[in-house]
Amino acid sequence: MVPTHPTRLQMFITAHGIKAAALARETGYSRQYLLRVRMGRVDPTRRCMAAIVAACRRLSHKRVRASELFELGE
For residues 15 and 44, what is the distance between their CA atoms, to the nearest angstrom? Predict the structure, then answer.
């Protein structure tokens, strides 16, 4: 099911002015795949989440935690 509200990841990258191409370059994942993650259409693997968190840290120059970018289950 596609969320009707922006995902945490989408809100973060919008708030910090992170461009799709920069995120793709930093993570090693395609812009198309990252768009599906940002829109909540696919659930990323743990490896992908780790790459996104690391990329967001580098691009935003902030300490970012996975829980700030993703809805983590118990």
Answer: 21
State which amino acid sits at residue 67: S
Say what the pLDDT of residue 5 is.
Answer: 82
Per the domain annotation, does 2 fall within a domain? no
Give me the CATH number covering residue 57: 1.10.260.40
Q: What is the average per-residue pLDDT within 8-36? A: 96
Q: Is 73 exposed, middle or buried (0-12, 13-18, 19+ CB in 10 A)?
A: exposed
Give the rounded percent of residues in the chain with a pLDDT score beyond 70. Answer: 93
- What is the domain range of residue 51? 8-69
State how far the Cα of 7 lies from the Cα of 36, in Å rounded to an integer: 11
Residue 22 C-alpha from the chain's centroid: 12
**Whose structure tokens read 């812009």?**
31
Question: Could you tell me if residue 3 is inside a domain?
Answer: no
Domain count, the chain: 1
